[in-house]
């Protein structure tokens, strides 16, 4: 009986730590695996996601992707990138978009949809949890490095 | 411009294989009140209305916009935007704020044709997008005097990263017009700008932005011609008129608007600290006509950000150049005896003071982002109207003649909710 309880506890703890690992995993920027870009600087990522220069270092146009359905992840991404709340980021984009200067990033529902989009779109760039990275995509920026 | 919209729709039909149309918009619902019986607040020189003591006015700061982004290919897109902003005449021409086709062959170059936002000063492109800025309204000292919103023409933009900086340069050419009015007149005739050539340079880094805008244009207006004709006739027909009103014809020609040059220059910058943003702009208007006199203006604003709340304080100034008609040697008692003499004198005074803006404003305010797409703003302005007066502020009576001594203090309270959808 004691062994069974211990086993349940271990399974529960294991499950909890896995969940914790997945949700607290750091965000990374990924591109299509065949994209020639190997690394981006923070200012290059800011240029891409704030509509200042929406291209990879080789000059080819990029398609930045935002997560639509997970506000927590979006908030975390922009806070890490530019230190702004989502409201301030939206305010910034409202002036860029409604003045006709540029279009904001395209949106995908969740990480699964993002990975499918990046796999199908050679010039896409997106942020996902590092734990979600697959063989179809390539990490080009990490926040904690 | 209506033809331009049809042309854009026609082009979109040819270009689009599978149309990707995105619809979005913005708006502000705002109320304004003041403590003055004499100085009526208005948002800018296109507004015929005014807000006095005990008024709670929604028209000056309420608007609603809708935008269609039609993405044709990776290189071509079309943007059409319409705004309701309590226009004096609401029709397709006045509601259409953007209607252009853009061709971007690569990330460095972008070419637009049609109706684009007028990139005259730092905030002119998005002055009606309340959600885009922290304040409850753009500073009147720079933007009140410039009601023109859009440019019908072309522009070419070049963007390039330079290390950690991003540089962009935009060259634009075109024409525009917008309603302009003063003295509580119910009429707001269009004021046309022609041959507009402008250059906008932007340098942006992670923490700071610097922008330089310079535009040259020709005023396209025959409004002063009757005065020139009248003074020329008086000068020719009335004996000793050159003694009664020395250099009257020279003055009239100097006041002429048609084909006269105006230059608009602005230097602006902002710096983002961790919790604080500082933003400032200095602007200068220089012209070849006495009817639109030169102007120096600017503002400095500090914004403190804490979670969903933003607190700000600003100071702004505006100083018009002056041409004192009464110091030009006119013998008024003699002029009163000349038929139509005083009419010409009063018309001249009206023209010379049409664009006066001499004032200083101190503002404090709060912006609360209670949703990621909605914000509430509260702002209190204290404005001192200086010597030389300001026709930005409407007199209580219709078509009241300008008074250079009309100085004073006024407090204006703004409350609004701005949103995106």
Descriptors:
heterodimer, A: about 140 residues, alpha/beta, five-stranded mixed β-sheet, 5 strands, about 45% helix, B: about 425 residues, about 45% strand
Describe the structure.
The complex is a heterodimer of chains A (145) and B (421). Chain A has 145 residues and is α/β, with parallel strands linked by helices. Chain A is built from 5 helices and 5 strands; from the N terminus they run H-E-H-E-H-H-E-H-E-E. Chain A has helices at 2-24, 42-49, 71-82, 86-98, 111-120, and strands at residues 27-32, 63-67, 106-108, 124-129, 137-142. In chain A, strands 3-2-4-1-5 form a 5-stranded mixed beta sheet, sandwiched between helices. By secondary structure, chain B is mostly beta strands. In chain B, 15% of the residues lie in helices and 47% in strands. In chain B, strands 1-2-3-4-5-6-7-8-9-10-11-12-13-14-15-16 form a 16-stranded antiparallel beta barrel. In chain B, strand 4 and strand 5 form a beta hairpin. In chain B, helix 4 packs antiparallel against helix 6. Chain B is globular and about 75 Å long. The two termini of chain B are 26 Å apart. At the A-B interface, helix 2 and helix 4 of A face strand 2, strand 3, strand 4, strand 5 and strand 6 of B.
**Class of secondary structure makeup of chain B:** mainly beta
- As a percent range, the share of helical residues of chain A equals 40-55%
Number of DSSP strand runs of chain A? 5
- Report strand order across the widest sheet of chain B: 1-2-3-4-5-6-7-8-9-10-11-12-13-14-15-16
Q: Specify the overall morphology of chain B.
A: globular
Structural class of chain A: alpha/beta
The biggest sheet of chain B, with number of strands, parallel, antiparallel or mixed sense and barrel status, is: 16 strands, antiparallel, barrel
Beta-strand residue percentage of chain B: over 45%
Percent in helix of chain B: 10-25%
Rg of chain A, rounded, reads 18 Å
Major β-sheet annotation of chain A? 5 strands, mixed
Indicate the radius of gyration of chain B in whole angstroms: 23 Å
- H/E element order of chain B: HEEEHEEHEEEEHHHEEEEHHEEE
Largest interface: A-B, 32 and 47 residues
Number of distinct beta strands of chain B: 16
Strand content of chain A: 15-25%
- The number of distinct helices of chain A, counting runs of at least 4 residues, comes to 5
Mean pLDDT across residues of chain A = 87
| Shape category of chain A | globular
Mean pLDDT of chain B: 92
DSSP summary: helix tally of chain B: 8
